[in-house]
Amino acid sequence: MLRRSFLASAASSGLARALQAGPLDRAVRILDEATASGAVAASSLYVNRRGEVFRKSFGAARSPDTVFLLASITKPMTATAVMTLVDKGELSLDDPVKKFIPEFTGGQRDLVTLRHLLTHSSGLPDMLPENTELRRRHAPLADFVKGTCATPLLFQPGTKVRYQSMGILLAATIAERITGKPFREFLRQTVFTPLRMAHSSLGLGGRKINETALCQVIGDVDWNWNSPYWRDLGSPWGGAHSTAAEVGRFLEYFLASDSRVLRPQTAASMIVNQTKGLNEPRGIGFAVKPGSFGKACSASTFGHSGSTGTIAWADPASQLVCVLLTTKPAAESRILGLVSDAVAERSS
Fold first, then answer.
1. pLDDT in the model for residue 219
2. Intervals of the chain under pLDDT 70
3. 3-class SS of residue 322
4. Which stretch of DSSP H or E encloses residue 89?
5. 340: closest CA among 313, 318, 319?
6. What is the C-alpha separation between 165 and 162, in angstroms, rounded?
7. According to DSSP H, which parts of the chain are helical?
8. Whole-angstrom Cα distance, residue 284 to residue 273?
9. Spatial contact of 171 and 236, defined as CB atoms under 8 Å apart
10. Residues near 46 by Cβ (< 8 Å), separated by ≥ 6?
11. Each residue of 76-112: pLDDT tens digit?
């Protein structure tokens, strides 16, 4: 398909002005007003519908290629890398975690499988009780793994869905133990390189923090989202950096039905409900709950959001992809939902 790229970053572009006066004008206006008021320091919007691409940066993001900390959009990327091992037969979704992490054993831990880790149904907590202390002392990921192996499960594995970053950590740890490679390198080789995501990395990828969009965090502690420690920890649940366009490329892969990364049937399985009968639908690494993204999105929409102020989703019914990266923490902002609604209404 011939891709027509509409680069709206140039204010003098007549085409950019025409687009802003069209279906995306409300989304652009919301972001223009948010950055002009100072509520959002920087943001980047990417929209693709059937090969027609719109890109625009706002505020301190001087280019659509500005790199942001993705936070939990990292999770489906991590899950995708892990699933390459399933495709190769080196791992099964029904393998018990203890097969690869022997220290994760005892009681109901013996029941936890890779499937539970990747669908948020393991019983593990989102964050460890000692999370703040670990970050304060700049603990390595190995200490988070050790804590996860010791922390009590919150419920019997497979009986409910409850969001759990520590389950994603263990899934990445399994991949490291199978391959013998640092997970950040494994993610680069299996996902970023095949999808031509040259600006994407788990951790800083050799950049300086001031070469990325800085999160709007309160307080000056040396373990917050802008700290060298956190930015380069490479947490597989939230430590990836990328541009809006490259996150869009990642989502577009799951609409493409090709084998650059996964077998087509494996990719298709990740973006549909894998927790039928439980309290919440979840895909493999992806959020698939209807209504999680734009109000006008179809029930088949999949994606993820991030606490640093990011959201990314794709609607197979309309072949619409939307990525919005901002510096305003999601808990303090309505921008993600407002813009998603505006973009989704474009195709309703």
1. 81
2. 1-23, 346-348
3. strand
4. none
5. 313
6. 10
7. 14-20, 25-37, 74-87, 114-118, 131-136, 141-150, 165-179, 183-187, 228-233, 244-256, 264-270, 335-344
8. 8
9. yes
10. 53, 54, 55, 64, 244, 245, 247, 248, 321, 322, 323, 324
11. 999 999 999 999 999 999 999 999 999 999 999 999 9
